[in-house]
Amino acid sequence: MEITGRLVANAIVRTTTSDKKVTDFRVAINRRYKSNGEQKEETTYVDCAYWRTDALAPYLTKGLLVQLYGHMTARPWVSRDGEPMASLNFHTNEINLLGASQRNDSDGAKSTLKRQK
């Protein structure tokens, strides 16, 4: 599966109890559409985990446009108020860095860094 979105915050690296490092980050995926002639936008937030290496973490910064390959899972949980909740989690196998946010990418250049299996 492929998703493309912008990072909403800088990636963080955490270490599991079994001493494995994982890079965690969140992306926003925007969908634009028309409804009754009116332009609308919908944003979906997806939590992502990249287990292959933590070397990409310094490059995964807020506003960066990324193309990700992997698989999606849903994680149900119960809030403190006892309300059922769910989040989308993307288990990332490959990351393509497509470019900085528009405000940071003044020359419009497209940089690509690809990490595979």
TrEMBL record:
Entry annotated with the keyword NAD: no
GO biological process, one term: DNA replication
GO molecular function: single-stranded DNA binding
Keyword hit for DNA-binding: yes
Keywords: DNA-binding
Highest taxon of the lineage: Bacteria
NCBIfam families the UniProt entry points to: ssb
Listed name of the protein: Single-stranded DNA-binding protein
Organism (species): Mucilaginibacter ginkgonis
